[in-house]
Amino acid sequence: MRPWLFILLLIVGLPSLAQVDTAYLKSLYDRCLDFSEDRKDSIRYYAGFIEESATHLKFNKGEVLSSRLKGIVEEMSSNYEAAINYYLQSLEAARKLNMVEYEISALSDLAILYANIKEPQQAKNFYLQAAKLSSFRGDAYNVVSTYNNLAVIYMQLRQYDSARILLSEALRIGKPFEKQIDITSTYNNLGSLNFKEKKYDEALPYFRSNLQMHTASNNAGDLWVDLLNLADLFTEKKNFDSAAYYADRTMELARKLDSRSKEADSYAMLAKLAEYKEDYYSAYDYLKQWYALDTAIVNGDTHQTIAELQERYNAKEREAANKLLKEQVEKETLKAKGITLLAIALAIIGILIAIAFMTKRNANRRLQATNQLILQQNEKLAELNHEKNSLISIVSHDLNTPFATIQVWGHLMAHDADRLSDEQHRALGKIIQASNYGEGLIRRILDVEKKDIGSHKLQLENFDLTILTEDLVDNFQPMAKQKEIKMHVDLPEKELYILSDKHLVSRICENLFSNAIKYTPRGKNVYVSVNDEQDAISIKVRDEGVGIDKEEMPYLFSKYSKISSQPTEGENSNGLGLSIVKRIVEEINGKISCESEPGQGSLFTVILRK
């Protein structure tokens, strides 16, 4: 045991196992919930003590309490896989004991964790379960807490009206119990909501009020959130002195708490501040620090493991349900024994009658078996082909971003080349050359994928086209900035949902955005708009590029078409892009058209049914 932990135990006055009772274990558990991140070693020790003592006392709540504390420790340490495992154990134990209070706690823990690892839909599902249980019990504390957390998820999903309704309801329920219920989270979330809606002056009083309360209570974790909110708000208001003051304090507090996730978020805040101040070298350095921490905390393997943990938990629930069903079937079988005997007798008679047709039936069975085998093989080949296409899409998406980033920063440094030595200048040239080569490799991979678009399985879902378009435009901003092209976006203010294949719609937009930038000269503009056309939605992409001759318009969407129009700065074009766009549009029952004049640019219009 560490010396400082032994001193702490002496202060707390931890008794021996012989002196411990169940009330003491529950009190110890409640105290641990108030510990901050710098005392996670103490929480780990008490979790083990509660588990051992509960076994000795045959205390049925022991597994619920100790598993939740262990999950909290792992989450504080950014070990999300282990944290989810412990939270699921706590949830399962609570359900076995029919303890709704602890079931709500476990559901909330899982929801918060999934929100932290950027899985808002999973978090929303757990929060809705917790909200349903809390409302049924009439527990004001849990209702307020769950509404607050659920509102955060709605904000992540950009459903701001739903978030405001939940926060207003949480404030209405919690205000009469302000002395018993901490409603600073509600104030913080109201401030965040106003911030996301760019109502900075309305958000500021909420953030400052929470800063005063958490400074007085010396709550380090909540204080870090307040400082980060104020740093972000003053950055948006371009009050850089105040923003720098609060951003530096967030980093100091994150390191004091020994929290990698908070330190990563602090670096992201410092990078944003440096970018707004046009200090791009510092911004790039902070982004490297953020990327190193953020990818270490949550990576692809972690997400895969988390999904496997969730599936294993669901499988256990299915196994229990199947066991219960089997017992019921066995009981019904005993009751229906007479009917079963009769059925057997009828089956024997049927077999005797069918003997005359045995030869023909065997031949038919062999034919059916052969056809079934062929069908299964075809389905397996289709699945493997779909997995191959998915892998190509993932690789192209994940690799394209870092190469584009390297190119942007390489060209930025090249503009300031007079400050570099000859050796550094040669090294910079090698970096840009290597990034161009890497981008070429990705492009060749994409060519293979484009040729195989016809094998994609449609996966219809209802999604907000406004959000999708906004995200895709953001992804193409570095490419546009490299040619000093400004992208203008005109999107509806309301949500605009469409039932279609989200992956295929994304590919349509990506091809049109990429072509618009390629064929537009440096310093010009590209315009993107999405409009509600009653029973359809239109996506329009207009550029100020080289345009297309009238005589060549009939061949524009042909495969491997080589028209006279060429990219303005020698970008790669293999003639497949627009033919694939047309095939995708037609596959999802849409229409595409083009209007163009040489030297005046082009306008592509895609019409998709809702």
Structure, described:
The chain is α+β, with helices and mostly antiparallel strands. Among the domains are: 1-98; 300-330; 458-609, Histidine kinase-like ATPase, C-terminal domain (Heat Shock Protein 90, 2-Layer Sandwich), CATH 3.30.565.10. The protein is 70% helix and 8% strand. The chain is built from 22 helices and seven strands. It has helices at residues 3-12, 22-33, 40-57, 62-76, 80-96, 100-116, 120-137, 140-156, 160-174, 184-196, 200-217, 220-236, 240-257, 260-276, 280-297, 300-335, 337-354, 358-414, 422-451, 465-482, 502-518, 577-587; strands spanning 460-464, 486-490, 497-501, 525-532, 536-543, 591-597, 601-609. It has a five-stranded mixed beta sheet, covered by helices on one side. A two-stranded antiparallel ribbon has the order 1-3. Strand 4 (525-532) and strand 5 form a beta hairpin. Helix 18 crosses helix 20 and helix 21 (502-518) packs antiparallel against helix 22 (577-587). It is globular. 29% of the residues are buried.
